[in-house]
Amino acid sequence: MKICSICHKISATEQDHLDCIQRRSIELEDENFKNEIPEKLNISKDSQALGVEVRAILEHLTKEKEES
């Protein structure tokens, strides 16, 4: 038995839990996607040219996930 390095719970196998590995992978993909949004839309050049609604959506998408 081993302790999972992601969730720090006991693992019956000698590896991390598969669901923990998949969850970490998804979280990293989401983080990369959020970081690429401004680059893809060239927001850094002229963010005032976007509509208010679009800016609100992008701000919501790029906010860091609050940890509970």
Q: In words, what does this structure look like?
A:
- The chain is built from two helices and two strands, in the order ββαα.
- The protein is mainly alpha-helical.
- The model has no long low-confidence stretch (mean pLDDT 78).
- A two-stranded antiparallel ribbon has the order 1-2.
- Strand 1 (2-3) and strand 2 (10-11) form a beta hairpin.
- It has helices spanning 18-41, 52-62, and strands at residues 2-3, 10-11.
- The chain is rod-shaped.
Span from first to last CA? 29 Å
Helix content: 40-55%
The tally of strands reads 2
Major sheet attributes: 2 strands, antiparallel
Radius of gyration: 18 Å
Pairing-aware structural class of the strands and helices?
A: mainly alpha
Q: Give helix and strand order, one letter per element, not per position.
A: EEHH
- Let me know the average pLDDT: 78
Please report which band the strand proportion falls in: under 5%, 5-15%, 15-25%, 25-35%, 35-45% or over 45%. 5-15%
Number of helices: 2
Question: What's the topology here?
Answer:
Blueprint: E1 2-3, E2 10-11, H1 18-41, H2 52-62
Antiparallel strand pairs: 1-2
Short description:
By secondary structure, the chain is mostly helical.
Quickly list its features.
two-stranded antiparallel ribbon; mainly alpha; 68 residues; rod-shaped; 2 helices
